[in-house]
Amino acid sequence: MSSLREQRRYEIIEAAMKVFGEHGFYQGKVGEIAKEAGIGKGTVYEYFGSKKEIFQQMLMYMFETYVEGGKKAVIGEKAIRDKLIVLLDYHYAFVNQYADVIERTFFHFENIVKDIKPEIAQNKRKIFDFVLEIITEGIETGELRSNLDKETASIIILGIVNSSHLKRIFIKADSINKIDSRAVIDMVLLGMGR
Amino acid sequence: MSSLREQRRYEIIEAAMKVFGEHGFYQGKVGEIAKEAGIGKGTVYEYFGSKKEIFQQMLMYMFETYVEGGKKAVIGEKAIRDKLIVLLDYHYAFVNQYADVIERTFFHFENIVKDIKPEIAQNKRKIFDFVLEIITEGIETGELRSNLDKETASIIILGIVNSSHLKRIFIKADSINKIDSRAVIDMVLLGMGR
Amino acid sequence: MSSLREQRRYEIIEAAMKVFGEHGFYQGKVGEIAKEAGIGKGTVYEYFGSKKEIFQQMLMYMFETYVEGGKKAVIGEKAIRDKLIVLLDYHYAFVNQYADVIERTFFHFENIVKDIKPEIAQNKRKIFDFVLEIITEGIETGELRSNLDKETASIIILGIVNSSHLKRIFIKADSINKIDSRAVIDMVLLGMGR
Amino acid sequence: MSSLREQRRYEIIEAAMKVFGEHGFYQGKVGEIAKEAGIGKGTVYEYFGSKKEIFQQMLMYMFETYVEGGKKAVIGEKAIRDKLIVLLDYHYAFVNQYADVIERTFFHFENIVKDIKPEIAQNKRKIFDFVLEIITEGIETGELRSNLDKETASIIILGIVNSSHLKRIFIKADSINKIDSRAVIDMVLLGMGR
DNA sequence: CATGAATGAGATTTCATTCAT
DNA sequence: TATGAATGAAATCTCATTCAT
C-alpha cells in the first residue's frame, strides 16, 4: 500500500532532520541518514531522487507542520494578546523541538534550493500572512491601534517571534532560558516609551 | 614590516567575503578566493592555515566592523529614539552591504566554527551588550519606562533590528523596500495596543 | 511444459534486443528489460542467471537467426551472382531490422563475453563458412575464376556485406540510402580495373 | 610551458588507449588510466573534464592519426593499385597497433559520444573522402574503369579495408594471419568473375 | 512461480591542502 | 616569498542481484 511508502518516506525525513540538524546540509551525509533511518544507503534513493530532494522535502514538511501547528495553537485564543503570546510560545517550542535543523537550515536554505519548489515559497509567504491576519484581526476588534501599519507591525512581530531563537544565538549558545512571552508581548503592546 | 602582511590578509578576507557571500562556506572554493584576491592558491595558505580559518577571521572582522560602526553611528545621537532609528538604519545598511555573506553565514556558522575562537563569542555578546547599553541609557534618561526588563527589551530590539533582513526573506526575495525605521521604532516605543 | 518457459525466455530476449539496442550493454538496465517484457524484475532472474547471460543468449539467438535466414534466403537462387546479391540484400535487411542492437553490440561483445560460450564462437565461424560455401560453389559452377583464393574471396565478400552498415557509419548516420546490391556484386565480379 | 601540458595530455591519452582497449569504455576505470599514466586520479581531471571527454579526445587523436598516416603512406605510391595495397597494409598495421581499442570502440562509440564533437564527425567523413579521392584519381589515370560508380566503389574498398580486422573477428579471434593485401586488391581490380 | 523493495559494492568526480620549484 | 601542479580522501549516486512474501 501507498501508506507504507509514505511511512518510510517520513522515517527518512525524520532521520534527515536529525542528521542535517547535527551537521547542516553539506556535512550531513546520505549514508548517515540511511543509518539513522535503519536502512541501506541505496534504499534512500528509492524514495528520494537526491540528497537535495531529501532536504527540500524535509523543509516542505517542516514549513507545513509549522504553519498548521501555529494556526491550530492560536485558534483556541480569543484575545489578540493571547494569540500573540501563544504564537510566541508555539514558535519557541517548535524551534526547540527542531532546534538544530532550524538553526542550521530553516532560515538559510536559499542557495541550496535555488530551484526552490513554488510550494516552499508559498509556505514562506504563508507564515507572514498568518501573522498579518492576526494583526488585522486585532485592529478590527479594537485591541490594536487602528492607525497601525499592518505590514510593519507584522514584520516587528515576526522579528520578535524569531528573537526567541536569536536569544540563544546572541547571548549564550547553551542558554535554555526561554524568553517570557507574556512580558514580551505586553511590552510590544504597551510600548517601551514612558 | 608586518603591515604589508596585514594588508595582504585584509585583501584575502575581502575576497573571502565576496566568495563566501556568493556561494556560502561549503561551496565557496579557496581557489576562487585566491583568484578574487589576485594571488596564487598556495599564497592563501601563507596567510591562513585553512579554509576554516579564513572563514573565522572573516567573521571576526565583520563582527568587529559591525560593532565599531554601530557605536560610531549611534554616538552622534542624543535621544534614545534617534539612537534606535539610527541603529536600525545602520543595521540595514550593513546587512545590505554585506547582504549575501550575512544571509548565508552570519547567522549560520555554529557548526563551521564549533571550535569557535573565544573572540567571536565575545563579539556576539558585544552586539547584545551594545543594545543593552542603549536601553539602559534610555531608562536612565527617562525616555524608556523605568519598569522595563532590560534584557527582554534588548531581545525585542535585536529581533526587530534583524527584521529588516527578515523582510526580504519572508516577503519577497527581491524586495528592495527598506522598512521605515522611524515608523518601526515609534511603534515599539508607543506600543501597538490602543 | 517447457514450451511455456521457452516462450517466456524468448519474450525476454526480444525485450533485451530492444533495450540493448537502444542503450548498449552497459547502459541497458535489467529493470528496463523486465518492464519491456511486461514482467517483474525478479522474474527475469528466474529465466536467466545474470544480465550477461541474457546478453549472451540474445547474441546466440541473433547469430542463429542470421545464419538460418541467410541460408534460407540464398537457397532459392541458382546463380552465384544472384546468391551474393540476395545475401547482400538479406544482410542489409537484417541489419536494418536489428540495426541498433547490431551496431551497438554485434561487433563489440568480445569483452562482455570473454567467457564466451563455444556455441557463439561456432556461430561466428558459421557465417564465414556460409560465405565460403557460396564462393566454392561459384568456382565449381565456373561462375567464379578457378584460381580464386577462396578464403580471401570470402573475406572480401564478408567485408563488403558489412559495408552496407558501414555506409551509414562512415558517410552519414541518418542515411537511409541502401547500397545497390546488384551494382556492388557486379563490380566485385567484373573488377574495378579497366 | 604549454608543451608540458600537451605532453601530459598525450600521456593520459596513451594510457586511455591501453585501458579502454583492454576493457572498453564502461569497464575502463579512470583510476586505472591514472595508474597506467603514473599519476594521481585527481590529476587526470586537471587535464580532462570527465571520463567521456578523455574518450572523445582519444578518438579524435586516433582519427587524426589514422587519416594523416594514411595519406602519408599512400603519397609515395603512383599506381592506384599500389595505393590501395599500401592503404590496406597501413590499415592493418594501424588496427594491429591499436587493435584492442579499435575493436572495442572505434566502430562503436555512437552512443557514448552522442554529443559528438563536429570534428569527430568530420574525421569520419574524411576517411571516406580519402578513399573516394583515390578512386577518382584511378578513374582519371585510366587505371580504373571509367563507368565506375565512385561512391559504391569507395564503400567496397572501405568494407574490404575493414575486412582485415573482420578476419580476426569472424574467423579466429587469435589469428595473426595478415590478409595478403596484394591478392585482395588484385582480386578487386580484376574481379572474381571468370 | 512471480515479485519488487532493499541492498551495498563500486564508480566518477571534487577540492582542500601540500610541496618542489 | 609565491606559486600552482599534483594528490587522494571522501561523497553522491547507480543498479545488478537477492529474497521474503
Q: Which homologous superfamily in CATH is the superfamily of the largest domain in chain A?
A: Tetracycline Repressor, domain 2
CATH topology of the largest domain in chain A: Tetracycline Repressor, domain 2
The CA-CA distance between the termini of chain A, in Å, is 64 Å
Overall spatial form of chain A? elongated
Poorly predicted tracts of residues of chain A: none
The major beta sheet of chain A can be summarized as: none
Biggest interface, residues from each chain: C-D, 53 and 52 residues
Number of strands of chain A: 0
Determine the oligomeric state from the structure. Answer: homotetramer
The tally of helices of chain A reads: 9
Mean pLDDT of chain A: 81
Structural class of chain A: mainly alpha
Portion in beta strands of chain A:
under 5%
H-E string of chain A: HHHHHHHHH
Q: State Rg of chain A.
A: 19 Å
> Which CATH class of the largest domain in chain A applies here?
Mainly Alpha
CATH architecture tag of the largest domain in chain A:
Orthogonal Bundle
User: How many distinct domains of chain A?
Assistant: 2
What keywords describe this structure?
194 residues; mainly alpha; Arc Repressor Mutant, subunit A; Tetracycline Repressor, domain 2; 2 domains; 75% helix; DNA-binding
